[in-house]
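Thread: "does anyone have the structure for this chain?"

Original post by V.I.:
We have the sequence but no experimental structure in hand. Need at least a predicted one for the grant figures.
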Amino acid sequence: MILVSLSLLTLAIWLTLIFARGFFWQARETCDDLAPLAPADAAGLRVTAIVPARDEAATIARCVTSLLKQECPFPFDVVVVDDQSADGTGGIARRAAEALGAADRLSVLAGHAPPPGWTGKLNAMQTGLAFVETRGAAPTHILFTDADIEHAPDTLARLAGCAVRDNRVLVSLMAQLSCQSSAERWLTPAFVYFFAMLYPFAWVNDKGRATAAAAGGCMLVDRAALARAGGLAAIGGALIDDCALGRLMKSVGPIWLGLTRRVVSLRPYPRLDDIRRMVVRSAYAELRYSPLRLAGALVGLTATFLLPPVLAAHADFAVGGPALLAYVLMVLSFRPMLRRYGMGAWRGLFLPVVAALYMAFTVESAIVHALGRGGAWKGRYQAAGSRSE
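Reply from O.Q.:
Generated one for you, tokens below.
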């Protein structure tokens, strides 16, 4: 009887996820929905991109070049905050701008160590924001973007179009992640799929729902609305800065989040260990550093992803039947994301294995946090309660 109940539970979970979770699995919200801003609607608009960069020599030139090549009907410039890099990041950014004849539209600032209560990235973002707010002709909007992101020429015009036409205080695009190595092909589509499950994009974009999130690689923010929300100081210690900013901005106005192929991540994760470290850095922060939330998440993920294939193999149809249907729904729900990343639908059969790996990474995230080494990023341990270095 217990096994029958568990099997029915797995089916109930998947019916709920498929039909009552914002249809997250369809991956329908994309930048194709965003028409570029027309010149007639651009009056008074002014945008500055702020790029926090720490040891990004490998990608900063492509990032800066793509930003300075934006085709937009309003003034636009770029600020790179060189966050104590040791690899010449700032100089590479300057040379990239000079090669385009656009050195006058790039400013490179020297960053400083984050003060107590701030993470490194948010501190660098604040450094850039303070700079643009004190110079003449302060921008109406800020494009926060990462140094490992490359933008198609019409990206900013599309973001601005959504912000102006729909009066959105934040418009964010989740970059197309690298999916070249074997580890990436197995784990990257699932990473985006799990994110969408946790934060259904349709709910994020619904003005009537509290669900809020953003993707840190590409976020266009209304500067006045950010000030009304309390500025970056209100989230200065957030390890998952993008979702924190999404929640902050939705408290003062509507936001929008979608997928894109026009914004591409240049950061590769060639080995399983690279992806593991990326997840371990912030997974426990998502659970608010709570052991109870961790236990609940593990139980929930086990019931959702691990039990269906296990129970589906049971000889008793009363047990195996509902679980098999749950497993089929799971596999089918993963298909749109796999297709988006050019992967075969057959990989969905192994989603329980991938989920188990992410569960293990989450447990490790809690362990390293307990050891005072949470939030590791380029020589800094930034999670709450960690020993910073």
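V.I.: this helps a lot. The CA atoms of residues 230 and 248 lie 8 Å apart.
O.Q.: and Strands lie at 47-53, 76-82, 106-110, 141-145, 149-151, 170-176, 218-222, 255-265, 376-377, 380-381.
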